[in-house]
Amino acid sequence: MTYRIDRVGIVGAGTMGGGIAAHLANIGIPVTLLDIVPPNLSDAEKHNPAARNKIVNSLYDRMTKARPANLGRADRGDLITVGNLEDDFEMLADCDWIIEVIIEQLAPKQALMERLEAIRKPRAIVSSNTSGIPIGQIAAGRSAEFRAHFLGTHFFNPPRYLKLLEIIPTADTAPEVVEYMKRFGSETLGKGVVVCKDTPNFIGNRFFAVASSYGLEHALQNGYTIPEVDAITGPTIGRPKTATYRLLDLVGLDVMAHVNNNLYDAVPQDEYRETLRPERTSALMTAMLDKKWLGNKVGQGFYKEQRVNGAREFWTLNPATMEYEATPKIRFESIGAVRNVEDLGQRLRKLLGFDDRAAQYARDLLYYGFAYAAYVAPEIAYKLSDVDDAMRWGFSHEAGPFEIWDMLGVAETAAKMEAAGLTVAPWVKEMLATGHDCFYKNGSVYDFETKTYRAKEADKHIILVKDLRAAGQTVEHNDSASLHDMGDGVALYEFHAKMNVIDQDIIDMAFKALERLDSDFDALVIGNNGDHFCAGANLFAVGVAAASGHFDALDKMIRALQTATFQLRHAPKPVVTAPHQMALGGGVEMAMAGWEAVADHEVYMGLVEFGVGLIPAGGGCKEIVRRKVNPTMRAANADVLPPLQEAFEQIALAKVGASAWEARSMGYLTPQDTIVMNSDHRLARAKQRALQLVAAGARPPEIEQIYAAGRDALYALKLGVKSLHWGGFASEHDAKIAGKLAYVLTGGDLSAPAWVDPWYILDLEREAFLSLLGEEKTRERMMHMLQTGKPLRN
Question: Which residues form the 3-hydroxyacyl-CoA dehydrogenase C-terminal domain (predicted)?
Fold first, then answer.
């Protein structure tokens, strides 16, 4: 008998409990969310349900208002039922999985498990989200059947966005429960799952706490400033832009202090634990905690926002004076030299070849991390790759410590570590002595227990472009795009330009893809493994061409893009798009240029051209009218203005959907499109869907005529724009762009509504786009966006 999770109960509605509830609701799983009854209720309040649910309702409201948003769409909150632990505890009896997220104290957790055992249904899985209490102790005293279905499930905050899920079985957890939760975590929750040993703080937080504490103390000991450290420890060494101190402000200094203090007491055997309480860092943290400078949640920590001449600046703390100072521009020769090196291994090797302060700090930080990772891995992890996975998925590092050590050369780096006074773990020395010179080799990973390589567990749901390329499956290639053979008769049309912006090479490859689809393949997938699906058109190239007066060339390029998206949409064989993360402007047009889409739940879609003084011209205007206006106008006596106004405002306000569910409500995704929770599975799912369409003998989407509302609707939209202009809410140029957008969406100055050929609208949008490129104010907006990353209102 297999397991199935149709309803989840969560006990504890705080930051983590509410975040987990929202993530489950986003997926479509109903959740029962309970918390305590407020203490010290009056006699009247004791019989008032609203008063008894005051805490859980307050926490639920906080969850819905959090930024970044917990809910993928506001109505997802309807799947969460709230209650309290006295009146509504029996509601947990219907749940297939119950998650404990209460106070980090053993006794209350054990008491809760005793209550749960009395009401949970047989085979219901129970888990704890604790990060500081041994999982085995929490279920102590419970029945064998309860313990067989009990384990740790440690989410990272915020649960919607951070990929890591640590699963911690106990000695009593049934193997089939562990396997089911691994699969459920990966395929349904969309997480990167790591199975951990039941040790304090598990893998991610154990390694991060010690390694980051070393980095803080080392910086203070050697006179590095806060902005210097953040300039060194961000993307240059494969870490997020939050780097070190910005990350601590985000997490909260009180949280870090709590984790470090608890971990220090919990690992008396750890030879590195003194790093958790270093002299200078502890003194600084104590002073900041006393002043309540806890980070972003109170408006100041290592950084503080200041207003200077009306502009917002972030000043940094000077630990010596405990005053905030304007943040200087930080420049290091080494960082400047490696800034444009894309490959992490090459970048780090080049960086560490320098001997300036940045290279010295990066070297010391990385080498210490390698030493601690090797020391602690056998204690906390079943395999060293889990340490790397935890750092990538939990902390958004580009690579984990063993992966980076491999990039730098294990033997060479080990010698340098020892020369620097660091201890290299005995198992690493033994590995090198027996002729094993790296941690990863040919899809296998070194096993510190068997002292040999074991094949790394492959996820059949993951397709990586680099693997297709390495296997010689690339059939067409240029500087910005490629076509790969995915196998089973399916081709992959991949963008790989910077930010995957659309240029002539990407357009050319679209036609190559259509040509090869016709002759060599049964179906086509459009997608990639980049950071973003497509951030729109190459604004720089378009702006330079416009400034140079090359309008004939621009007209030819835009017409080619329109033709490509149109032909992909109506290709004779299935085309499935696979958008993820940013799909903006032309990226939305490409995402809509398929029979269906298989979208990552974290996809941010919007036709945002208005922000740079333009309107969509790769088929976006035509397609949004087809998707929003056409369905309404097929009904008798329908009013065109509501859907038309909605389409107009969506483009004119450059609205971006904050999730796949919002993108669906905006028409960029359809109800037939698939939303996947695990972005790593997106390309495989898109291939699978394409093959299903082939097997079903599906026919291409019919070419629809487009409803053009005509002159009356055009004037109605223009009147609204004029009102905004007269009221000072829109500039003269805003009004000009909006007028051209209205003209395209209504089909222009038609005397009466009509159903028109789609190319009628496509021609209008291209003409409007080109005319706006001729406007100086539009070119100013484009240049401002390129220089600052922000829109200009002129």
Answer: 202-304
